[in-house]
Amino acid sequence: MLEHKDYISSLNKARKKRNQNIDPRYLLILLAAVIVVGIIVLGVKAAMKEPASGRASGNRPVQEAGAATASDAQPASEPSPEEEAARKEAEEIQKTIDSYSNLGIVQVSGYLNIRETPSTDGKIIGKLSGDGACEILQTEGDWSHITSGGVDGYISNQYLISGDEAREKAKELVKLRATVTTDNLNIRQAPELDPSNVVGQALMGERYVVLGQQDGWIQIEEGYISADYAEVSYSLNEGRKLDMKAMAINQYDNLVISKVNNYLNVREEPKSDGKIIGKMTSKAAGEVLETLDGWYKIKSGPIIGYISADPQYTATGQEAKDIAMQTATLRAVINTDVLNVRTEPTTDAKIWTQIVKDERYPVVAQLDGWVEIELDSVDEEDGTTTDKAYISTRDNNVEVRYALNEAIKFSPAEVAANNAASRRSQIVNYALQFVGNPYVWGGTSLTKGADCSGFTMSVLSKFGVSLPHYSGSQAKMGKAVTSGNMRPGDLIFYAGSGGQVNHVAMYIGNGQIVHAASRKSGIKISTWNYRSPVAIRNVLGD
User: Fold this and answer.
1) Hey, where are the domains in the chain?
2) Angle separating helix axes 419-432 and 452-461, nearest 10 degrees
């Protein structure tokens, strides 16, 4: 047993000694092998993923040396001039909208009245055109207290949108506009300082869409205005103050007023026998373009010509302004060729006549979207007026403003050799002596006052023609003629809404009439179809 234990002990010692004598080179070889295996394993794992410079699923080529990788970000390209302009415009539009704390947009066709108090009876102090903007200060029932274009007043909520709806709508309404910075600025037909090319006036604070800019001028839809007296910026259209009497006068740089009792001749040349091309009725206004020896070259309405500079007949300077302040009245100026007149302020009402462009009608009352005008003081037998005349202000067909009378085109009919023509010319020239005299219902005085049939009756009685004192009865006298065959001295008749004749005028040639029009207008000259005629009669018997 002892021998066996000794054997085992000696064997263990021998094994231990052998282990202690292993060659170190074998250990280095073993370590290198482990490292190689580790590298191979890592390579296999990397191959299972697509490196940025490797191949995807065997289909993508290896990135060439020096080529840009996906991580090499390219700088953004510069915006084009068009893109930059659009960006700036969008910023200006948003800035304009953001300038309103509580934006309101008017939704009407035409314009909406701005009133001094929240009532339909409130004094009208301004107007807001369709798509015009305002700052809503407070809402009071059916009315909103607003400020717009320097006008502080009230408008009906019925025609107003606000909040997000207004802000969204405004995006399409902001435009490049010129805001007038002077009291009175001429609008010209062409971009040049020529007295004869003035076509209108722009007032302080009014805004006009800019169509173009060139050499100190701004082109707008109405013509051209000086860039020295307007600021151009992106803006919304806003309200305008109601034209006051002073504004009617401010449109004239060098005002002249006719002081005659009836009319003042406007002549083609500065001489007493110059051809008559127009007439200025009493207190009519014009612009002095040039002062000559005893004459003024003037522009009044559509007429450019010469009038006497005698202070007995004309006023200028402060005297003219004082007269103008006393005589300027609120008028409806027609801007379209033909406009319907209705018996009630609604498009459902009957059209009973039509009126034409360039006439100025006295205003009786202003309603939202409508104006009641004095068309004529009708010649009813009992003196009552049954018809009211309403015209729509939609589509800017009518401009309501204080205005002065201006010259009208008129050339006397040439006196022909035959006696009939001579007689007609004498009748017309006699009738024209009384232009400017008053209208008086039931009157027959050519100087103190007459109504329409009293005027024609009294004029023709001077020449041996007897007529009844009622337009309806006069319309049955003589014989009918057509508009193409009418001659000076013929009578033209107009009817009320019921179709009955209630007004008469005398044709004077050149498409014009003379008539005792109304209490406000007196005896005046008008276009023969200033409203729709219903009959023309030759009562002279020739």
Assistant:
1) 83-170, 175-242, 248-327, 330-403, 412-538
2) 130
